[in-house]
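User:
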Amino acid sequence: MATIQPFKGWLPKPEHADEIACVPYDVISTEEANELAKGKPNSYLHVIRPEIDLPEGTPFNDDRVYKKGAENLKKLLQSGLFEQDEKPAVYIYQMETENHTQTGVFTCASVQDYDDDTILKHELTRPDKEDDRTKHILTQEAHAEPVMLTFRDSEDVSFQIEKITLTNPPFIEHEGDGGVVHRIWKTFTTADFVKGFSEIEHLYIADGHHRCKSASRAAEQLRNEQNVFPGEAEFEYFPVVLFPMSQMKILPYNRVIKSVSEKKFNEIEKKFNLTQTDQKSPAKKGFISIYYSGKWWSMALPEASSESISSSLDVARLQDGFLSPEFGIENPRTDKNISFVGGIRGTAELEKLVDAGKYELAISMYPTDIQELLDVSDAGELMPPKSTWFEPKIKSGLIVHTF
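Assistant: Predicted structure:
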């Protein structure tokens, strides 16, 4: 059963939330972070992307980057813009767009739950990215950003959330990019939340596999250095936002391919019975929309390559039955002939990339369903890379966990 740990969060004073909050580190490049942080000395980007404060070209994993991140976090927390709660709290985090609202619990999860698969995974992690995030955690003595987790809906947890959000104004209300409103409530009455999650069998990683693994690695190192038992120290817990699965919104993770000759496309058109269409996005699972040479085409995906749950996903059928045999793309993580475009950018971005000649073919996907993610995780299987794009994104810098 799941363990949550209330903690003494560092929160910006409400009047400073707008100047501090920023997008997560992994949705922007160094160049984009540098642009976003211009004229914003208090932006949390200086903590999660500290290379922007070093000479151009400084590698992201240079020791100076980790040292700078720690300096920037310490400076920000001591600037008078933040305050730390005097008692452990549970926080409620809500994101609202024009047509979607999701409300979850911002708290700490246990490294032990991650290690023993109470928190279930669906992706592999890369050692180089693990190393990077682990060094940030150890140097900053903090978990600078939360992980997005989901769980099967619980009436008990939902009741506790509504008891707070329906009777109290939020402590912080921040309008971010794209008109997304981020709200935070806090409560020091935490026992009911701890009990509610103790009755939930599994939590599931939605977004943040590398942050989870890095929290585990950092805890193991500190545990050995300090000679303490598992679960004793604050570094054994890392910040998460837990959203009920019914509220999770997944957008498609689209693909673009650099090189596709006219001859190759004609072969594909015949082999897969492509038909021209006005639909820029597939209407149902099992289909994709393809943009090539100024036209949109509809294509039925090949059948699954095996009987496993993960192989039945559209992204797996695309990879196994189309990208690999037709383009020789065996590892989409590293193959330079393919790139990925988050669904938030829409099909207009796919057309723009192809029409500008940066890529020659674009693939518009049908989104993975949240139940598919849970089914794959429950089965102990892995999803193909770039299977899900969760939207909206949690803002960084609104609650910080230090140890």
